[in-house]
Amino acid sequence: MPRPSGAAWRRIGGRVAQYALVLLVAVSLNFAIPRLAPGTPIDYLVPSEQVATITPEQRERVLAQFGLEKPLLEQYRLYLTGILRGDLGVSAQQGRPVVDMLLERLPWTLVLVGGAITLATVVGGGAGFLSAARRGGRTEAWGLALFMFLDSMPPFWIGMLLLVFFSGYLDLLPVFGALPTSGAAGGFGLTLEFAQRLVLPLVTLTMVRAGWLFLVARSSLAGELSEDYILMAEAKGLSRRQVVLGHGVRNALLPLVTAVAVEVGTVVGGATVVETVFSYPGLGRLIYESVLSRDYLVLQGAFLLLAVGVILANLLADLLYPILDPRVRAESLR
Amino acid sequence: MSGTRMGRVGATILLLFVVAAVFAPILAPHDPALRTTQPFAAPSFAHPLGANDVGQDILSELIFASRLSLTVGFVTACLATILGAAVGIVGGYLRGPVDTVLMRGVDVILSLPFLPLMIVLAAFLGQNTTNLILVIGLLIWARPARLIRSQVLSVRESGHVQAARAMGATHGYVMVRHVLPRVTPLVAAQFVRTANVSIMLEASLAFLGLSDPFQKSWGAILFYANARSAFLTDAWLWWVLPPGLCIAAVVVSFAFLGYALEERVDPRLRSTLPTSEPSSGSGTPMPVREDALR
Fold first, then answer.
1. What is the Rg, in whole angstroms, of the alpha carbon atoms belonging to chain A?
2. Interchain contact, B280 vs A266, CB within 8 Å
3. In A, which residues are within 8 Å of B115 by CB distance?
4. Of B108, B244, B289, which has the smallest distance from its Cβ to A21's Cβ?
5. Cβ within 8 Å of residue A147, ≥6 positions away
6. Which residue range forms the structural domain that includes residue B173?
7. Taking CB atoms and an 8 Å limit, are B231 and A216 in contact across chains?
8. Are B115 and A155 an interchain contact pair (Cβ–Cβ within 8 Å)?
9. Which residues of A23-50 are buried (b: 16+ CB within 10 A; e: fewer)?
């Protein structure tokens, strides 16, 4: 990649400003939702079973502790500075800082989501390119219908069915969590245990997302292959392989990268329900637990953290475009 | 399968579910809200799909649940399409600062992780179907808006629109009488897609325990099946498999319909855009090249 020009930096700066705006909106939503929701803030700050029995003095104390008696703007300022200091509040159920709870779960989700995105891109994107390269056949049309059906299945349902077959009937893989509950083998053994438990959630999430990437890759390459330059390349006597890989796929990659970046938010959503099925100790499982126990601050913290993750992924894609596509470089030079 | 055939298959499946939803009280063998047999009962003649953990007939639950899914799909799609079409047409037609502001808003909404945000909203607002519809509808209009806008951009340059403007027609008149009819097919296709996405989102929220406890929903049936680990026993066959099949069937029928609609609307879509962009579980924008080049 050539050294980024001033214009390229400006383009990236524009995107960063856009994402900063998204972040501000996410934070503001987090601030506004509890204050607009029915009921009083107390309902959301103390463990649900204590809401009915709380005394007026305790109520005052909780309000003071969270600065809820201050004017709204002051509350917002405190909220923003709190987040900048990495303070997302304290879990009503567990009494621990929300940030600690989130960071403890984050690595598990990163492994799952990262793995699923990579696999889905390779499998779905690859199959999509292949399907576009051999367009018009009967198998191709049925393949499309198949991937559409795959894309229509609820992720948690696929997960449950995989559990039924691989753990229930075949007894091949352990079902629960990410690590064995007892007898820590340490080192390699532990890694193997983790890998075994990762297989099913990973396969589930990959299956769910591969369908969409298949469709994107397929239509993107199909579009490129109908362009004149492909005809030109063929006329020059290049082999079909050279034409498709060297010319078609190269140009069809950009929409795929966009789709993968956009996909991150969806995969994160899918991970939430898939982790729930497999009791996989990631952020999604934490969200599910917090929904059940009505631990509002944890839910909000998880949303914020996931928003940051999605934004970072999108920013990464933005930085990738100029490397992948000279047209983007040219655009920023203009 | 060709687009038309897909459309026919989709319409047939959808029609079956509409019939089930409309005639649920006649078709369902039992009242799904009542305890009509032993908890965890295996399938029998009286209860073809057995019973759940409180002894409610699962087949009747499934039939009544089609009402919720179809309602959520239809109403949220109306909400999101109207909002999306309004924003898309106004932004694309007027251009300038209005467009910039609207599209910034669209970009912001599209960059948020939908499901986690919906979970937060649903948890705070309380579990009832109206809230669910509002929460989903208010978030998924952004993608239709962007797609409709990009088509309006080309429509506004076409001859009859320019002519109407030259003859002194007001912006409002041109947008309603000339731009809207031209984008109606795209709006229809987006309606189908949005319905598809919202049904999946509703199922996911219900599966996480965020549905109206007094209303049967396929996602909620799976929530209870999961909470009781039904997939570790034979019960998966009648308790886990059928609700998921129902969700998948409805979602795929909308996807097929959307594909057929789009192919009919604009044959070019077949080769230049993701021809069928079915439920992605959230409202991800269609990856069009212009996005990346912007």
1. 24
2. yes
3. 268-270, 272-273
4. B108
5. A124, A127, A210, A211, A214, A215
6. 3-293
7. no
8. no
9. bebbbebbbebbeebeeebbbbbbeeee
Instruction: Work out the minimum CA distance from A236 to partner chain B, whole angstroms.
Output: 24
Residues of chain A neighbouring B108 (CB-CB closer than 8 A):
18, 21-22, 25
The predicted model scores a pTM of 0.82
Three-class SS of A145-198: HHHHHHHHCCHHHHHHHHHHHHHHHCCCCCCCCCCCCCCCCCHHHHHHHHHHHH
Residues in A touching B287 (Cβ below 8 Å): 216, 220, 255-256, 258-259, 262
Question: What is the SS3 string spanning B123-170?
Answer: HHHCCCHHHHHHHHHHHCCHHHHHHHHHHHHHHCCCHHHHHHHHCCCC
Say if B214 is an interface residue toward chain A (CB within 8 Å). Answer: no
Tokens of A35: 């204050």
- The CA distance from B157 to B274, in Å, is 25
The CA-based dihedral angle spanning residues B187, B190, B194, B196, taken in that order and rounded to the nearest 10 degrees: 130
**Cα(first)–Cα(last) distance of chain A, in Å?**
17
Angstroms from A28 CA to nearest CA on chain B: 12
- On average, the pLDDT of chain A sits at 80
pLDDT block averages, 10 residues each, chain B of length 294: 80 92 84 78 78 81 89 92 94 90 88 86 84 88 89 86 88 89 86 88 89 85 84 79 91 87 62 39 34 29
Pairwise CB contact (< 8 Å): B225 & A160: yes
CATH at B38:
1.10.3720.10
| β-strand partners of B57 | B51
How many domains does one find in chain B? 1
Residues 6+ apart with CB under 8 A from B209: A288, A291, A292, B220, B223
Q: Which residues of B touch A321 (CB under 8 A)?
A: 292
Check: CB of residue A260 under 8 Å from CB of residue A118. Answer: no
B291 lies within 8 A of chain A by CB: yes
> Is A273 within 8 Å of chain B by CB?
yes
Q: Look-up: residue for tokens 């951009």? A: B153
Q: Report the pLDDT value the prediction gives residue A139, as an integer from 0 to 100.
A: 66
Q: Which residue of B has its CA nearest to A289?
A: B208
A311 touches chain B (CB under 8 A): yes
Query: Quick check: A91 and A297 in contact, CB under 8 A?
Result: yes
- Across the interface, whether the CB atoms of A273 and B208 are under 8 A apart is answered yes
Give the burial class of B285: count Cβ atoms within 10 A of its Cβ; 0-12 exposed, 13-18 middle, 19 or more buried.
buried
Nearest to A219 among B107, B256, B273 (CB): B273
What SS3 class is residue A264?
helix
| Cα A176 to Cα A189, A273, B65, distances in angstroms | 17, 15, 30
Which domains does chain A show, CATH number per domain? 6-37+88-332 (1.10.3720.10)
Report ipTM for this prediction: 0.81
